[in-house]
## 1
Amino acid sequence: MSDKRRVALIITGGTIDSLGKDRLDLAWYIEANKRIDTPELLAQLPELQTVAAVESVPFRRLPSHALVDKDWLEMVRTIHDILDNSKADGVVITHGTNTIEETAYFLNLTLKTDKPVVIVGSMRPASALSADGYLNLFNAVRVAADPQSRGRGCLLVMNDAIYSGRDVTKNATYRVEAFQSRDLGPLGYADADGKVVYYHMPAKKHTTATEFDVRTLDSLPRVDVVVSYVGADGKMIEAAAAAGAKGIVSAATGAGRPTPAEDAAFDRVYKEKGVLMCLCSRVGSGRVVRSPGLAKRGFVAGDNLQAWKARVLLALALSKTNNADEIQRMFDTY
């Protein structure tokens, strides 16, 4: 009997399986609207069988910027079906890089397993000269098959580095070194000598330690993101509230300062409609903290989460409560 580790592969699409018009099509390949099919993608990587028995699992393909909350909910159920009904030791998900960090954080908060779930993408299409996707996928399977990866939450593997799904973010539009964890760095590496090496564990609670089990949910509360800039008024905030938002994340200036007009609008929609506001920063690094004045107004502080990641946590929090202090506890925990 084979002693290989078993890894399930879910292919959702993105640059990693895209095909351009030629090997130098590194920017407009999405307009070619061509994809390499799953058997051919796997055929390009016979080396996968040296590290794991890989089995693909059907899931619809779509660009990551087309995802909606229901896709995430279905993905969670699919992953649980795989891990509950097969002998898979881990799961790898290919994903477009545009929103890969949001999916990684959602899975980090909602999966109820300590088995490795690794999400991976690429910055160059499969047809490109020096395409990075093949090695990224190989490394993702290595990480998912490695027993050391268990219990670390949802992981993202790109450019040899292993990141926590909570902390990683995209920092460049085309560079293969696009992904970083700005405040904390990677957890480890899928290194050149064939070893998977880790240097630290995530400190924030995740997966089996969270209070979010979404397997029975059909939707999530609407949460919108509003960006601050010089002269920003409250119109976008009022529009979000009118559209049915239960929460709004403010990507504010500096250490978390909306404009005075935005502040007034936040107070207004909170008082009139109970729309809860989470304060983050557009800066890209560092914490936003909850002052006594913000607590009194019912504001929540997003810690060091990017605004789009805070949106994920706020939507999950609002599926359980609309109490600002309780939601702040969740932001401090996760």
Note: The chain has a mean pLDDT of 96.
## 2
Amino acid sequence: MTIEQELRDKLRKISALFEGATTTGEREATAAAIDRLRKVLAAAEQVEPSTEMQFTNLDRWHRKLFLALCRRYGLKPYRYRRQRYSTITLRAPRSFLNHTL
């Protein structure tokens, strides 16, 4: 397991803690931990260059689910001008796209 995968796994676990937090103190602590991990991930992404990939989802439900998954990991999906509505373009490290997403 690479460092990036370990960090993303930790991020997943911490976000689960954030969703299940009952007090404001717990939420603030987990939010701070999420911010620290995202900074470390941003530094790790600088080591491996980001690549651009296009995904095509024909079904509206699959498209919404895929967009929610991308945003959960802090990715920003987009479309180019005059690109079909069903096409989603995403820029991320290739290892993340292949293994995690």
Note: The helical segments are 3-20, 24-47, 60-72, 94-99.
